[in-house]
Each structure stands twice: as C-alpha cells, then as structure tokens.
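haha ok so turns out i had the wrong file open the whole time. this is the CORRECT one, sorry everyone. sequence first:
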Amino acid sequence: MPSSPPARAARRAVVAPLALLVALALTGCTAVAHGGAAAPGAAAVDTTPLGELDVLDDPRAWTGETTARAAATPVDPVAEDPQPQLPVTVTDAQGTEVTVTDTSRILALDLYGSLSRTVFELGLGDRVVGRDTSSTFPEIADLPLVTANGHELTGEAVLELAPTVILTDTTLGPWDVLMQMRDAGIPVVVLDPHRSVETSGDLVRSVADALGVPAQGDALADRTQAAIDDVTAQIARLAPAEDGDRLRVAFLYVRGQAGVYYLFGEGSGADSLVESLGAVDVATEIGWQGMRPVNDEGIVAAQPDVLLMMSKGLESAGGVDGLLERLPALAQTPAGEHRRVVAMDDSQVLAFGPDTAAVLDALARALYAPGSVG
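then structure:
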C-alpha cells in the first residue's frame, strides 16, 4: 500500500541529503546544461492554456519520445531596488553561522541556475557579478562564468570577481574552492540542496534571508506558490480521476558514457514532481527510496507507462534506441514497448526554483497533450 503523505515527507527529510550527494557525484562534469531561457534557435513553446489543449482521452494512447520545454519568461522582480537589512547572520544548511555585511557583489551558484534566478527575481540582479553554466536567462547571460568543464567551480575566476557574498549548495564542486573562498574572508552561505515542489518557497526564503531582504523573500515565495497552485489545479483537471487510470511514471537518470543508470525514488525530488503531475511515481510505489542503480527486476516490477528523463541523459544513451539496447528489460514495460519517453533539459527538470510552475506546465503538456509539443 502506498505510504501516507506525512510518512513520505518524513522519509524525504532523511533520504534527500544523501540523494543529492549522489546526484553531485553523478552529474559533476558530465553535462553542460542550458537553463533559464530558451537557447537561440530553440523550438517555439506552445503557451496555449492547459485547459484549452487537445488532451488525449487516454494518456497512454501515444507512442514515441516527447520533449518538454518550459516557456522562457523574463525576470519580473518583486521589488525595484530593495535595500538589504544588513548585517544579517544566518545558520546555513551545514550548521555554519555566517554573517553577511555586504551584498554589493553577489555570486549565486548551483547545478540548476535556480539560485541566480531567485536573486534576480528578488530585485537584486544588478548586484550579481558572475554566473554558473546553468544560468543562461537573458538578464544574466552576459556576466562572466565561474564554472568550467561543465559544473566545476574555478577559484581564480571567483576571486577575480571579488564577491562580497556567495550563495551555493552542495551540487557544485570541488568543495575545496568554496573553502578557499571562506579562507579569503568571503561569506559563503550553503543552502539546502534538497529540492522538491513543496520546498520551492523555502528555497526562495533562504536566499532572501541570507541577503537581508526577507520581505521580498516572502513576496516571491508567495508568488511562486500561487503559480504552482494554479498550474497543479489545471493539471488535476487533465489527469485521470481514478487512481488506476493515472499514468505510471519512472524518473530514470542515465549517463551512458559512464554506464550509470539510476532510478529516482522517494526522497529524490522526482517523486514530488511526478505526484504534482497527477501521476503515480512507480519507484515510490515499489518502495524505492532515494537514488538507486536500476536492475532488471526493479524496472520490470515498476511497469512504468512513461519514462521521465533528462535530455542529456537520453542523448548519452544513444536516444531511445540506445536506451532500449542498454536496458533491454525496459522492453517488458509499457514505456519501453511504446517508446514513451519524456525528456526535459537537465537544468530545468529538477530545479524547483521560481520557475517550478513553468516546468510543471511543460511536463503536463508532454504527458497529456503530446501533440502540442511535437
């Protein structure tokens, strides 16, 4: 029997930190993500409201790969020129007490680009002096990079920008670079790497508190949650009402060159995403906690209707054909038999920042109205 929501939430709190450390080990330098805004020349995104889409009567009645693309939206600060209340002292996710006295030169760095986007949405974008590889939305795209070889922090590049505060989490490395920054006297605030639909507002408030703009953090968190509530209500009207008719979805993490094949389960963040889409997270259903290597028995027992994957991961496996060749047990599932794979940009799908609602919207289109996304 599926776990109750309180039980799931409790186990997420225990499993998630380990899960995110595994994600760091797997993704460190293997993929160059493109987040935030659509890249030049990217396919146009259908922005027809979800309620007006031509939705399939049976969400299992389609075959083939689909790519979900979140619509690019301009930064919309909740305040113009907010004045941080400084100094501010916070206890970060690692239990370190950090005092921030100056926010004139901010670096906000993580695997997904969510932290930098949050700073811009708080109205402090003009204080950001650099970016990570995943931060590519137009308002930040011209700033210098401090990551190389994918998502590897470069100490020299950071120091050249003379930041007065660094916000990060444990999804970028090497860790020695961040310790070097602390040794140089730069306040480094490490935020909780656990991401889920439910924690999107917490992430926003943590960023805002560290930068001395708690009121703007509350406003942005409320706006983010309102957008999530709106899109999940729309999704609820698209998804089948009966539990037995809901799509069974497995989040499969792949790095084909390294022979890495992980099924993301309870506490990974993928479970939260799938449930918010009105679908069944099959890994959670079979008791799969955190992130674990796929085995034939597990994937066959899960019987997913759809595989949800990162775009670079699917590409690294050689597309759907290569994936089925590498994991032949998938052919014994509805997802494999019908080649139903939904791929989404690596930097978007599990970012869970201010753009969470846009990610949910894009995935809902791919699941319930695949004809709208091609």
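The radius of gyration is 20 Å.
again sry for the mixup
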